[in-house]
């Protein structure tokens, strides 16, 4: 699954949360790709913070790797 959505913090958190039931429906080991993380552009900060919180605070996601392109 791919998330290329809202660039505001709460919108990105909602995008992540809304993908979770879909991932569980498909496979417990679903792969989610999220765009616009860890880049220097202004719009990358809030989605990066949302991903960090989903990974480290709530445990909603488990990061297997990160490729920064460009």
Task: Please count the helical segments.
Answer: 2
Mean pLDDT: 85
Helix content: 40-55%
* Structural class by sheet pairing and helices: mainly alpha
Uncertain regions spanning at least 5 consecutive residues: none
Structural domain count: 1
> What would you call the shape?
globular
What's the main sheet like? 2 strands, parallel
Strand order of the largest sheet: 1-2
How much strand content do the residues show? 5-15%
Write the H/E string, N to C: EHEH
Strand elements, count: 2
End-to-end separation in angstroms reads 22 Å
Provide the gyration radius in Å.
Answer: 12 Å
Structure description:
The chain has 70 residues and is mainly alpha-helical. It has one domain. The protein is built from two helices and two strands, in the order βαβα. Strands 1-2 form a two-stranded parallel ribbon. Helix 1 (9-26) links the parallel strand 1 (2-3) and strand 2. It is globular.
């Amino acid at each position: 699954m791919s998330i290329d959505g809202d660039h505001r913090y709460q919108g990105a958190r909602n995008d992540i949360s809304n993908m979770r039931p879909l991932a569980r429906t498909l496979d417990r080991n679903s792969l989610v790709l999220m765009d616009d993380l860890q880049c220097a552009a202004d719009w990358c900060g809030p989605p990066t913070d949302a991903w960090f919180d989903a990974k480290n605070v709530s445990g909603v996601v488990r990061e297997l790797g990160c490729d920064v392109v460009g």
